[in-house]
Design goal:
The protein is mainly alpha-helical. It is about 35% helix and about 10% strand.
């Protein structure tokens, strides 16, 4: 899915406050805060369905857009903080990332809402790579979601401590996988 740029807001041009993001028929307008010089919402919109498949871009919370902008700025300024493990995964050092704290309450938000924060981080990396490498970067990224891997995440949670309260939260476990089976929820 590669959206066509609208007349008001083309790739490479800074968004104009009040312009439609995504062409005719969309509800999302670019606010003055999003009209950040050099930040192209079309590049974000192009990768949006890969990271937020259940959320239409036209209804994107402004907090997500702000997080993506801040994370993209961090990745652009500190390219040494991540490495492309493969074409489909990107590794970050958790301690370096939390130390830099590109977002307010970054460590807490990452622990409590990892799916949103890691999706924003993945989208930010796609945005920066497509800006830096243009069509070649978009060809390499393709229509695949970058899996964000965090190295050195602490604390390590023991297997016996994995309880239902940790569902949807970021945890680290260490061990050897001996056998797997499908999850069978216990319903009462």
């Amino acid at each position: 899915m590669n959206p066509a740029p609208s007349d008001n807001n083309t790739i490479g041009d800074p968004p104009v406050a009040g312009a439609q993001a995504g062409g005719a028929g969309t509800k999302r307008t670019i606010s003055a805060v999003e009209a950040h010089e050099g930040f192209s919402l079309h590049r974000v919109e192009r990768y949006w369905p890969l990271y937020f498949p259940r959320l239409d871009y036209s209804e994107a919370p402004s907090g997500h857009i702000e997080d993506i902008k801040k994370l993209a700025e961090y990745v652009r300024q500190h390219p040494e903080t991540f490495s492309m493990d493969t074409m489909h995964s990107c590794m970050f050092n958790y301690l370096t990332l939390v130390g830099a704290s590109p977002l307010a309450d970054f460590a807490q938000r990452l622990r409590d809402e990892p799916e949103v924060i890691l999706s924003c981080l993945g989208l930010a990396v796609c945005y920066v790579l497509s800006c830096e490498y243009g069509a070649e970067g978009e060809h390499v990224l393709g229509d695949h979601r970058l899996h964000i891997r965090l190295m050195h995440h602490e604390p390590v949670t023991h297997m016996k401590s994995l309880k239902s309260a940790l569902v949807g939260r970021l945890v680290t476990v260490r061990g050897t996988v001996v056998r797997t089976s499908p999850i069978k929820p216990f319903l009462t």
